[in-house]
Amino acid sequence: xxxxxxxxxxxxxxxxxxxxxxxxxxxxxxxxxxxxxxxxxxxxxxxxxxxxxxxxxxxxxxxxxxxxxxxxxxxxxxxxxxxxxxxxxxxxxxxxxxxxxxxxxxxxxxxxxxxxxxxxxxxxxxxxxxxxxxxxxxxxxxxxxxxxxxxxxxxxxxxxxxxxxxxxxxxxxxxxxxxxxxxxxxxxxxxxxxxxxxxxxxxxxxxxxxxxxxxxxxxxxxxxxxxxxxxxxxxxxxxxxxxxxxxxxxxxxxxxxxxxxxxxxxxxxxxxxxxxxxxxxxxxxxxxxxxxxxxxxxxxxxxxxxxxxxxxxxxxxxxxxxxxxxxxxxxxxxxxxxxxxxxxxxxxxxxxxxxxxxxxxxxxxxxxxxxxxxxxxxxx
Length: 380
Description:
The chain is α/β, with parallel strands linked by helices and 380 residues long. It has helices at residues 5-10, 52-64, 76-84, 101-111, 126-132, 155-164, 177-180, 215-228, 234-244, 247-265, 285-291, 306-315, 345-350, 367-379, and strands at 69-73, 92-96, 117-121, 137-143, 168-172, 190-194, 208-212, 271-275, 298-303, 320-321, 331-333, 357-361. Helix content is 37%, strand content 15%. Helix 2 (52-64) packs parallel to helix 9. The termini are far apart.
């Protein structure tokens, strides 16, 4: 039976426990498993290598991304770093220039020490990707929309370039989730998520995911996951499974709220720029419409002064001033000192991550209340 996305969130093969008929996946809070035979071990032996609760989550996220294998990690950065271990000394990566600050940090301070070099380019321009490719380029790392400026990269176009050079394409799909965008369907090789954000959706779990379609690549990542050991525990796996069931309705409602907030921000005299791929004026609007089914629930904007920026961050009452995004509550953050604090100031500012830029993840509050709160601070 071919099911629509919202149905697959509920009916994905793990809705009923086969042993007890419980309506839900049990939490297998164990570290090891009894073996009945010296010659033939069972499916599970040690929980770092496999746990039934984590496996249910991994199979679910693989289905949602139209992949064959999914891997759950202890954080988004654990997923990213484990996947980057696919590369070897002497390899070169092409990376989108306004990549998440944690990814920038691990590439420039850890993997650089291991002899893996990264070039940061404007991947919204496919010609810049072509120019950056070297004989030793082995990977192309993308975010679209990017964090925090919501730049849009043509995934199918980028994947076509990469395939011509036998380059692995990795895409951080955190902002979109598989509900709105599925990079594997567009020719990419590995999808990455900070599952902490929209996939879990309740600001109570730190987790990450990698999803692939190619079985050989899946075997390589499984080896890394088991060897490096940064796996997600069963309690957190269960919480994410629970959170995923409402992904469709949460994304729809948060996206509706984001559109309302964006429309209001665009009319405010104290707002200088609004970055949101749902705006017809956004440079990547047409590509976003072609490769995703919506613009998402994250936006960024700049205000007139540093003083107003501080006031906005400190005086809003409905949006938490915090690191992270994608929760049921709205979250406002300051990229220069939060998500991109690891990036040198001159690098941040060259990318447009200035002192007056804020990022807003719209939650499930009534959009009218969010706008009223913003209006009170920005125009009060």
